């Protein structure tokens, strides 16, 4: 499993783009994780699924609400990563009014989740292999803080916890 001090693994995430521009076409666009985090400070939070109860009611909304505080603390971007396709992540981001605050990144084949070891097997519940619930701070591609819920719960990966770590 990925640890503080490790570089993010090679992986591709997908984001549904609403408006063409900056080299991105309308619809799903692929992004190389290592290239996208190079030279940036990125807060990443992972969760099991779009439109699921805790993820929709608490986890993602906390980061959206705190987006300005993260930016003020030196974070360039906030990413929500989940094992869903880019169309679902785009629709979920629209519903949560996340535009300009949080990028909703799809890990449709669980490539990033597997590469980081932050995986949650929900096969018994009919959901298959998912992203575990976590938050991390990444500076120039290197993990500087990691809060892993270790298979469930919602106690350490919230926006307030990561923001406190960044500030201090």
From TrEMBL:
Highest taxon of source: Bacteria
GO MF annotation, one: thioredoxin peroxidase activity
Keywords on record: Antioxidant, Oxidoreductase, Peroxidase, Redox-active center
Transmembrane segments: none
Role of this protein: Thiol-specific peroxidase that catalyzes the reduction of hydrogen peroxide and organic hydroperoxides to water and alcohols, respectively. Plays a role in cell protection against oxidative stress by detoxifying peroxides.
Pfam families linked to this entry: Redoxin
Protein name in UniProt: Glutathione-dependent peroxiredoxin
Annotated organism of origin: Aquabacterium olei
Family assignment from sequence similarity: Belongs to the peroxiredoxin family. Prx5 subfamily.
Catalytic activity: a hydroperoxide + 2 glutathione = an alcohol + glutathione disulfide + H2O
EC number(s) per entry: 1.11.1.27
Residues annotated as the enzyme's active site: 55
Domain Thioredoxin residue range list: 2-168
GO term, biological process aspect, one: hydrogen peroxide catabolic process
Signal peptide: none
GO cellular component, one term: cytoplasm
PANTHER family for this protein: PEROXIREDOXIN (PTHR10430), PEROXIREDOXIN-5, MITOCHONDRIAL (PTHR10430:SF16)
Enzyme class: oxidoreductase
């Amino acid at each position: 499993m990925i640890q503080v001090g490790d570089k993010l693994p090679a992986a591709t995430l997908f984001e549904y783009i609403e408006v063409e521009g900056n080299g991105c076409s309308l619809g799903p666009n692929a992004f190389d994780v290592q290239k996208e985090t190079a030279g940036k400070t990125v807060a990443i939070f992972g969760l099991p699924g779009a439109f699921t109860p805790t993820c929709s009611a608490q986890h993602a909304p906390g980061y959206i609400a705190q987006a300005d505080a993260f930016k003020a603390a030196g974070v360039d971007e906030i990413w929500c990563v989940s094992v869903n396709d880019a169309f679902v992540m785009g629709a979920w981001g629209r519903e949560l009014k996340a535009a300009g605050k949080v990028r909703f990144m799809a890990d449709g084949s669980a490539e990033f989740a597997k590469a980081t070891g932050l995986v949650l097997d929900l096969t018994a519940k009919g959901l298959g292999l998912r992203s575990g619930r976590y938050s991390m701070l990444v500076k120039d591609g290197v993990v500087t803080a990691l809060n892993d819920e270790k298979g469930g719960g919602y106690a350490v990966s919230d926006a307030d916890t990561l923001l406190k770590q960044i500030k201090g």
